[in-house]
Amino acid sequence: MLKGFLTVGGWTMLSRVLGLVRDQLLAAMMGAGPVQDAYQVAFRLPNLFRRLFGEGAFNAAFVPLFSGVLAKEGAEVARGFAREALGVLLFWLFCLTVAGELFMPAVIRAIAPGFGSNYALAVSLGRITFPYVLLICAAALVSGVLNGLERFGVAAAAYVLFNVVGIAAILFLTPHVRSVAHAAAWGITASGVVQLGVLMVAAARAGMPLGLPRPRLTPRMRLLMRRMLPGLVGSGITQLNLGVDTIIGTLLPAGSVSLMYFADRVNQLPLGVLGAAAGTTMLPVLTRQVQTGADDEARRTQNSAIEYALILTIPAALALMVLAVPILATLFGYGEFTPRDVRLSSQSLVAYAFGLPFFVLIKVLAPGFYARGDMSTPVRIGMATLGINLCLNLVMMRPLQHVGPPLATSLASLANAALLAAMLLRRGLLRPDRAMLSRLLRMGLAAVAMAALLGLLAHGPFAGLERRHGLVRVLSLGVLVGAGIACYALALQALGVLDLRTSGSKIIRRLRRRPTSALR
Description:
Layout: H1 2-30, H2 34-55, H3 57-73, H4 75-102, H5 104-111, H6 119-129, H7 132-148, H8 152-158, H9 160-172, H10 180-205, H11 219-234, H12 237-249, H13 256-291, H14 295-322, H15 324-332, H16 339-354, H17 356-365, H18 367-370, H19 376-400, H20 404-426, H21 434-458, H22 470-494, H23 500-512
């Protein structure tokens, strides 16, 4: 699992870095205003489906079933099941895409009730981006096949193409269309075509050619749909919470949606790398252990995944909170994105960063239910926390404005993670031992020490970083990040959490081991 975690995490890190480059272009060329708001709302729907299917509900339902069929009935039967799933998925997604195109004005009214003059622009951009829903959800199924075969690298690498194509569209298509927003929208849909094509080729090379099958509702497909539909809520509750943020944001002053978007993009870097990597690689491993009756191993896998995720998530959250202004100024504070935008967006980032550990824990704890075929428990918990998020949003939106929705989402995620952990503990599926709890405590102490050092540096020799030249910002932020990493690593060493002299060599040895092919 560690090898898969590092592989998916590495590719996801590259994707997130390229995503930041793409967002830098959007910030510099459009700033934080009505046009940016319209584009972000138009992108929200396909992005929601991408995250729900690519990183959540579909994998949660499909991968355990596919892995079980592969292990018990062989590769040929598993390929037939994957083809059936692809046929049914494409049929329903085609119907959804047609409906979305026809009723886009009503959809935009529903998710952006506060829009005025930029309503027509949002509808136009939404119609350009919505076909991405069909393409990326089909790509998610093919990724699930590759993940079930424990070929994590290709599936994770495909998401890099989203940002590569998006950057190219912004740079080269803008002169030929109405605006930067239109170029970016066309880049989204084009990236879906490229991603799906690459993944289909990879599946064929892995011995699982899928083709274009006819939709068939077999008993196994009905089971998949029963598991997937509640999982859309349970696994995607974080994304639904962010959707509530968008709706509330359109009711706030112009630019609020953009301010929260750029803050969330920074927060998504560690969340995507650590949360998606842990959840994606953990699910097939945990499913296999549960199905073979290795309950003790399954509990150890759950504990290890929590430690792998939190050892980097806790310091990342504290660093984002302490360095919010320097980070946003360095990444986005150019062109149309003003110093005021940087300051306001940094306030949203602090609120999002508070919830980062809880966002990641949801990704790690939910597979404990999915691997055992339990989709209803995360759904019930998710619905409860969605209600909490909505209530907190309504209470905080006026006094806190652009900080209210991010803080509400973070508090709702805290409640979600706490309830998932409590239910796993109650059922005996999660047993954190004394050694694990001790390591988590020492990780927290090391992260606090790192945050204290960063705070002293940010308010001392590096004060006023956002007002300096762009290159100076980049170099200074690099020094701050390096100092934070060094401090945290040394603190972990001093507290006995890691032995830096041996940990690196162990990871290298594990990565060099050849994975066992699921088709052998």
